[in-house]
Amino acid sequence: MATAFELDQKDALARFKKEFYQPEGQIYMDGNSLGLLSKQAEAKLMNLLASWKVHGIDGWTEGEEPWFTLAEELSARIAPIVGAKPSEVMVTGSITANIHQMLSTVFQPTTKRFAIVVDELNFPSDIYAVESHLRLRGLDPATAMRKVKSRDNYTLHYEDIVAQLQGDVAILLLPSVLYRSGQLLPLREITAAAHARGILAGFDLAHSIGALPHQLHEADVDFAVWCHYKYMNSGPGGTGGLYIHERHHHLPPGTAGWFGSDKEKQFDMDHHFSKAEGAGAYQIGTPNIFSMAPLLGSLELFEDAGMDAIREKSLKLTALLRQLIGEHLPELLDVTPVEDENRGGHIALSHPEAARICKALKQAGVVPDFRAPNIIRLAPVAFYTSFSDVEEMVGRLKNIMHGELYKNFTNDRNVVA
After folding, report:
1. Is residue 330 part of an annotated ligand binding site?
2. By the 8 A CB rule, do 173 and 147 touch?
3. Residue 69 marked as a ligand binder
4. Average pLDDT value over all residues in the chain
5. CA angle 101, 128, 417 (to 5 degrees)
6. pLDDT at res. 417
7. 68 annotated ligand-binding residue
8. What positions are modified (N6-(pyridoxal phosphate)lysine) (predicted)?
9. Is 0.90 surpassed by the pTM of this model?
10. Do the annotations mark residue 244 as ligand-binding?
């Protein structure tokens, strides 16, 4: 494999590194949890603040970026990133709020079909949302929520997913990329298997959007949700997004609110809900303008770079990372699938002292991500991580492990891990 220096010399995306704010000497490997601030995102946020300052309430319809249609503008630009029609995408809510919206809309249990399939490795919030919808419909999660089991505690097998798609299942909800191991699931194949059995397929794209291309419409996915604050770099708590296939657009929103109204009729103040066309109907309340603003700037970078180029560099970065870990730190168990088509944008390492290793890395100027009970997640991001950064990070980690410097820290997580 080419050296880090050689890879940096050929890196077509190297020019983007200077667009992001990062302390001198720091190596940021936590973009799969919170992406860094770009100059473009900062500028857009300041522009939206200025529009409030200058226009007051008229900012809803005036200025460079009128607030009233900002979500729709962003949605049209997000659509190519997730491989959807503009009418199928809405920038709104958060992952959990959007799961609630999608389930309240498409989950219509009957005596024959009432179960929801999830997986035992999924992020807790997704599970909490599913449990609440089952309870709201008088169903017991202990029997109506089916969890796909993992054979190794890190990954899922396609055969095990399909085995759970029984005749009483109504909905399948899985992550596109497993947050602990970085495994990328075959969305197209899983969706086809679900549809062949009369089951709707939904996915949480939290750990894949912005790291790799998607083709949600072509893959026939029924619905999807995501955040924009990881690889999409929209800032902490940035507004999320949802996708709902156009064949479901006739469905009234299960959780209705006035921003789901037809824009021409919204301010009629009629108590009769006039549903917007497309995914816009599944908005609820007034958009969080300042939480959406940074996404405007971030999208400029994605449109400039292109998702294919981002994915290509991401794969090279993670390949170099795992190669160097394997050569120098075999005591760290790499639990991320090897094949390019089976992994997302981060590498997950398992070690019983993971929490204290992450603390030692931070002291050494590396920002990693710890996930209980024993996972170190490292996410080199195509926009702002160089191949030399990866090499230097592994060197610092090697010093920590071989010098047992991690023993200077306790092996329990911080309040926010």
Report:
1. no
2. no
3. no
4. 97
5. 110
6. 67
7. no
8. 230
9. yes
10. no
